[in-house]
Amino acid sequence: MTHENHSIRSICVYCGSQPGRDPAYMEAGRNLGKSLAENGIRLVYGGGTKGIMGAVASGVLSNGGEVTGIIPEFLVDMEATRHSLGQLNELVITKDMHERKHMMFERADAFVTLPGGIGTVEEIVEIMTWAQLGRHAKPMVFANINGFWDPMLELIRHMRDQGFIHRAHLLNPLVIDRIEDIVPAIIERAVSQQNPEGDSSVIAKL
């Protein structure tokens, strides 16, 4: 990457604490982690060391990158092992989910959503809600691995068509199929689009 004057120093990744049934999901996690490390971008994530979460963190660490894990105390033994957590560059243990999500938002310059379950959906929906309300203009990406997010994107289209997304110009996530295109696309948006009004050509693809 040759972009040096962009504002992207860290990216928050939302994804499943399980591996999923398609091996492509774990591969995508590892490759995204590698891409972050190669571009000198810190990973901010939910601290899990299992499933896709673990794959992303491993991809960063094994390629010399830096990782900040943010996890509530009650999930430490469910989504991680204490030994694995010790490998992270920075570990923050919060008192609850609310504090975790707020801290992840504050620490991140952009957001990427890999395949995951209800928790993953809840996280990216909250970020999109805040964007629609004008609370931030940070880049948001759906990593649409093998069409995983197609039903979600169709639901967003349906809500817009039915008149429930009244400020669609502020809701402008990127939808990217190939992992290697994600970091360049985020950096390009950060460089070329510094206003919160959104890109109508992107919104039209939703």
Write the layout of secondary structure elements.
Layout: E1 10-14, H1 23-38, E2 42-45, H2 51-61, E3 67-72, H3 76-79, H4 82-85, E4 90-94, H5 97-107, E5 111-113, H6 118-132, E6 140-143, H7 150-161, E7 174-176, H8 182-192, H9 200-203
Parallel strand pairs: 1-2, 1-5, 2-3, 3-4, 5-6, 6-7
Structure, described:
The protein is α/β, with parallel strands linked by helices and 206 residues long. The chain is 43% helix and 15% strand. The protein contains 9 helices and 7 strands. The chain has helices spanning 23-38, 51-61, 76-79, 82-85, 97-107, 118-132, 150-161, 182-192, 200-203; strands at residues 10-14, 42-45, 67-72, 90-94, 111-113, 140-143, 174-176. A 7-stranded parallel sheet has the order 4-3-2-1-5-6-7, with helices on both faces. Strand 6, helix 7 and strand 7 form a beta-alpha-beta unit. The longest helix has 16 residues, at 23-38. It is globular and about 50 Å long. The two termini are 28 Å apart. 42% of the residues are buried. Mean pLDDT is 89; it is low at 195-206.
